[in-house]
Amino acid sequence: MGFFSIDTLVTIAAAIFTLGILILIHELGHFLVARMVGIRVERFSIGMPPRFLSIQNKVDGLWIKLFVPWFVQRMANAEAVEFRIPRKKPMASDTEYALSWTPFGGYVKMSGMIDESMDGDIKGKPWEFGSKKRWQQLLTISGGVIMNTILAFIIFSAIVFSAGMDEPVEGTFVGSLVSTEEREVFPAEAAGIQENDQIVSINGQHVTEWEELTEIVQNLPGETITVDWVRNGIRYSDSMAVVKETVPTAEGNLDIGMIGIGRVVTHRDVGVVESVKYGARSTYVFGTLMARSFWSMVTGQTSMDQVGGPIMIAKMAGDMARRGWLDVFYFMAIISVNLAFINILPIPGLDGGHFLIISIEGIIRRPLPLNVKLIIQQVGMFFLLGLVLFITIQDISRL
């Protein structure tokens, strides 16, 4: 498969769409709250430096600036090309809206705030971040997390409202045979079980409800069991080795047994109220799942090998796009919840790091020294860049 194959282009398009929307919404959260509490936003950038294009309203019109790449600046004898579009009713703005070269990222540069730019120019003006009340600073820092959480909730709700949901049918009839990338054929299919067959007993124990069936199988990972099933009035029986799968749950990672069957489901439409409840519940479940997965990594219960970065997200986004754009949006909602959780971690360079510093300043009732903030930010950015590099190398090794 060549680089410019359809699959590759779909993956790239899905990745840019997914990550682009998530980053835009996150930064938009910071931007809107900052403007709401009166903090001047100097730059709103989609993508990370260097800048490619910027637009800004000024008193004499709309100014557009194209930045010349560094490797041709000497040849062009210019760092940027700027031109003006006259407007009948120009309205000046303090904010420069920029599009930068690195697509997977973005930032909001607020006056008087030490962030990724390492700008320590703080003058104490009333529109600066540091001049605002603590609750206003905390709310501004939380804006991105809040917006990502709201986005996930809206997507989950909209998907179930538009597509409806599947509900399980009572009984032990097989509705589907499971297949994954790691294992195309599970034991049930290998033994000859087909869709619409009815499982009647496991290890001689009669089963009439799907919950009974799954409880027995899930509690026997790696063991050999005997399964009896009925098809068109004819009874079949065979032994099969139960596959052990590690799955994330609300209580952490859990080893369960699987033979590769799914139950029969029926489809129904969902109203607005139920969709909203489903959206809230899904957002909470995935947020809790992310928190427990993170704790499992911290405590060493889960290996860092399972962590994915931008490349793995791009691959998964491409896989979702090939299944359908509804799956892309569902995947986007899950990543949005994960992005919200990661950003609230108290790590310098993340929103949670800023939140922690502001909270400490509130407790000690004075701002931390400027050089201390700069050092904290530099250490945090160094750590994050190293982590991103490590995860990216892992992603490449798994391709």
| Secondary-structure element series | HEEHEEHEEHEEHEEEEEEHHHHH
Instruction: Output the number of helix runs.
Output: 10
Count the beta strands. Answer: 14
Our measurement of the CA-to-CA distance between the termini, rounded to an integer number of angstroms, reads 13 Å
Describe this structure in words.
There is one protein chain. The protein is an alpha+beta fold. Among the domains are: 14-133 and 361-398, no CATH class; 167-267, Pdz3 Domain (Roll), CATH 2.30.42.10. The protein contains ten helices and 14 strands. The chain has helices spanning 6-36, 73-76, 134-163, 187-191, 210-218, 272-298, 310-323, 325-343, 351-364, 370-398, and strands at 41-58, 61-67, 80-85, 96-110, 165-168, 174-177, 198-202, 205-206, 224-231, 234-241, 243-249, 252-258, 261-263, 265-268. The strands form five sheets. The chain has a four-stranded antiparallel sheet, with helices on one face. A four-stranded antiparallel sheet has the order 8-7-9-10. A hairpin with a 2-residue loop joins strand 9 (224-231) and strand 10 (234-241). Helix 1 crosses helix 7 (310-323), helix 3 runs antiparallel to helix 9 (351-364) and helix 7 packs antiparallel against helix 8. The longest helix has 31 residues, at 6-36. The radius of gyration is 27 Å and the shape is elongated. The mean pLDDT is 83.
